[in-house]
Amino acid sequence: MRALRARRPHRLPAMAAAAATSLGSGSGSGVLGSGGPRPPVLSGATMNPAVRRVEYAVRGPIVTRALQLEQELRQGVPKPFTEVIKANIGDAHAMGQKPITFLRQVAALCVFPELLQEAAFPEDAKARARRLLAACGGHSAGAYSASPGIEAIRQDVAQFLERRDGVPACPQNIFLATGASDAIVSILKLLVCGEGSGRCGVLVPVPQYPLYSAALAELGAVQLGYLLAEERAWALDVAELRRVLGEGRRRCQPRALCVINPGNPTGQVQSREDIEAVIKFAYEERLFLLADEVYQDNVYAEGAAFHSFKKVLAQLGPPYADTVELASFHSISKGFAGECGFRGGYVEVVNMDPEVQQQLAKLVSVRLCPPVAGQIILDAVVNPPQPGEPSYEGFMAEKRAVLSALAQKAKLTQEIFNRTPGIRCNPVQGAMYAFPRIELPPRALQAAQAQGQAPDMFFCMRLLEETGICVVPGSGFGQKEGTFHFRMTILPPADKLQVLLQKLSAFYTKFVKEFS
Amino acid sequence: MRALRARRPHRLPAMAAAAATSLGSGSGSGVLGSGGPRPPVLSGATMNPAVRRVEYAVRGPIVTRALQLEQELRQGVPKPFTEVIKANIGDAHAMGQKPITFLRQVAALCVFPELLQEAAFPEDAKARARRLLAACGGHSAGAYSASPGIEAIRQDVAQFLERRDGVPACPQNIFLATGASDAIVSILKLLVCGEGSGRCGVLVPVPQYPLYSAALAELGAVQLGYLLAEERAWALDVAELRRVLGEGRRRCQPRALCVINPGNPTGQVQSREDIEAVIKFAYEERLFLLADEVYQDNVYAEGAAFHSFKKVLAQLGPPYADTVELASFHSISKGFAGECGFRGGYVEVVNMDPEVQQQLAKLVSVRLCPPVAGQIILDAVVNPPQPGEPSYEGFMAEKRAVLSALAQKAKLTQEIFNRTPGIRCNPVQGAMYAFPRIELPPRALQAAQAQGQAPDMFFCMRLLEETGICVVPGSGFGQKEGTFHFRMTILPPADKLQVLLQKLSAFYTKFVKEFS
């Protein structure tokens, strides 16, 4: 810290030059002289320490290095590879997945309504665009929407949920958001409070998607990590929840439990029985449930099926159905749409105290509204073409193609990994990632330590430098002590993915040999 | 609080009904019986008190009531008006302003690139769309962008700033965001820390745009309000800054100073001299400067001109130019574009400590990226058609029409208000609002008190109920004690605005008579 405090901020030479040729009208009139350098008001030492504690591995140092390598390649620096493959993030379109035509037609019609006159656009897309524009202020996607989202879209989400679950859903319980991340942070903000041993504790899986750890660090809450059972395909274990909760109660006030299903980074799809057990546990222990269900359309394994927490909760009946407080999250970034860049998503709240719900409405109003273009794409996702409508066949074909390609790639990934001695990969039942376990030889651990790196970071950095493949070390998600993993998306096109997996396996084998 | 604690949460009857007809597989297996009602985990009494403290008047109770009234009108409930006019928020398109064609053409081309084949779209829009798509992952607006925004757009913003200020700008200092609000909150998050008398204090104007008070409440910082001088057209007064800072130092650690120019809600445009004085004050007192410059294109008054803090800072020369830390904010929601729904904006940081800047980059990465469609509109705003390009004439004509209509409406608004005895309105030099002062008779104050309302809230609610005009009470922005104001946008179409102003003035006169 002292070193940071002493370091002088880097002044932009351009700015200094501009200043030197400036009018200089006031340069002598300051009360203080322009003596020696002085520390900035805001420095590493004086800034908000909660922000310093935030870590987000998915876009962390390994990605920074990947971007540098890309630039070096463009500048002609010789490398042992010709392309950097960013398998670090679930970004389908960046990996070549084509947008679903219908979604973009609806969005383009709303963005540029003159296109409503174009015969080339199908009538069902036009009908949806007309309805959405009528729900926009001044019939423009450029007007603010209501803060919880456009009412017509909240209605469509409610109907989508009713079809999905066979359980009533109410538009007033649905809050659209700037992606699921935004919605998750809003709910955590409501929950998190307290100081010292009264601080709010939140149970989060290990491994987890690091949005949770980042948000909890920023909010000053206590993250209580419960281990998923790697030996049982990353299943959730209520005994482990109980252990972590008991331990947590000694140092904070545990108030909430986060579950990610299908799992990120694990690819696990939870059984109905496990979900029931989690709900009962939340009821008994008085925990608010956060169900991150953004991968609900990404289920590949035979015999696996997505069960929403809300459906299971309703079917459990009283006292659970009318008591357990639940927030369930969904997104347009995943599923078959993969429209990450539009930043659309929502939360449905169930059994939320009406006063808290009012506070949630107020909280989201400060940021005015979620991006309307993202809301529009969300509407097209939850209200897709129906049989008989002109876009139906094409839409279904595109959707099936995306999902079946993902299913094939999930299988391919686990197969190639499991063929490699030293790598063990659980079945990728759902979501978009593999999270294989890698054995690392003791000399690799020593080499990593010598560089002040986590062993899996050391491995992933070497992998990146030698092959151009960018994956995220398991330490960025959390893992059982002494085990090492990495997260890799299954999104690259199948032919590319196959080459990538083979390269990765070969590199691993070479790496192990080098450090044995 | 006790009343809230006792109140039973409202259970969705639909949900309960679903539960009653549920499979009931687990309804008997809970450890706890389904005895009497129990309080929710998350209630008004147990939720994060910082969120409870947040207030955001622009979308507060008066707007909730306006929405109810709209619904009642639709249901045929008789009212003394036929339409609710929401003059509470700077939402240009909702008030009938048409989108600028070029911006939407570029956006539509990026959303649906098949349109690049359409002869109907001009070549300059296509050229920009092609360049932006090439800068998107997988050439899709549906891919995540880099967290601080698409590099090509950061470059265009930097060039825009260089043209504006005649001072070098660096893309690495520009962070695109989900609207200016998002960027402002990110900067405040870096600054805010400390407990008790070590809490961070932030100087904020009174009246202010309530995003600041809301964000500071949520972050647990101390808001130090400095009064703008209403008698000098809401000018900023450095002596007042000094007074508030001195007072603030006794109870917190003041670290930052927010300035809104052109002013929201005041409509004031700061003079170059005042900006110089503020910069010197920030230098002397070691304050980080936040310059909210989202209305920089909205300057109407003769003799008034927008001077950016960055330009004035550079021109002041050392020691200011190379020392004072500044964050300047801009947005696509205001200016001539008015594209609020797309949620686009940015912050440029100047003289920021490089380590802090790295922390800022990390912080924004947790939320992945700003909406790409908003980034695209931003690019079209900062990189508009140039002379000789096919869209140039049309674009300039549309832009001029928007800005000159606003200038006329600014004039009309202050004129009609100032004709009404008891209302005094400073010149609307810029931005999109009038913030007139209203004298309220003592009996009106008593009537308000009897209803537990601020006097100006009482006035605005009565105005809404009787005329359908929705404006925001001055108490939502802050005002000198004993004075009363409201904020009204000047955005309605001129003919409608004239009627609205006359109705409002007539209502005020009647109101004063009623309570005299």
UniProtKB/TrEMBL annotation, chains A, B:
Lineage top rank: taxon: Eukaryota
Swiss-Prot/TrEMBL GO biological process terms: L-alanine catabolic process
CDD domains in the record: AAT_like
Listed InterPro entries: ALAT1/2-like, Aminotransferase_I/II_large, PyrdxlP-dep_Trfase, PyrdxlP-dep_Trfase_major, PyrdxlP-dep_Trfase_small
Subcellular localization: Cytoplasm
Molecular functions per Gene Ontology: L-alanine:2-oxoglutarate aminotransferase activity; pyridoxal phosphate binding
Location of region: Disordered: 16-44
Pathway(s) of this molecule: Amino-acid degradation; L-alanine degradation via transaminase pathway; pyruvate from L-alanine: step 1/1
Catalytic reaction(s) noted: L-alanine + 2-oxoglutarate = pyruvate + L-glutamate
Domain Aminotransferase class I/classII large residue range list: 123-504
Main EC class the enzyme belongs to: transferase
Cofactor(s) required, per the database record: pyridoxal 5'-phosphate
Alphabetically ordered keywords of this record: Acetylation, Aminotransferase, Cytoplasm, Phosphoprotein, Pyridoxal phosphate, Transferase
GO (cellular component) term, any one: cytoplasm
EC nos: 2.6.1.2
Biased composition (Gly residues): 25-36
Function in brief: Catalyzes the reversible transamination between alanine and 2-oxoglutarate to form pyruvate and glutamate. Participates in cellular nitrogen metabolism and also in liver gluconeogenesis starting with precursors transported from skeletal muscles.
Oligomer and partners: Homodimer.
Annotated family: Belongs to the class-I pyridoxal-phosphate-dependent aminotransferase family. Alanine aminotransferase subfamily.
Entry protein name: Alanine aminotransferase 1
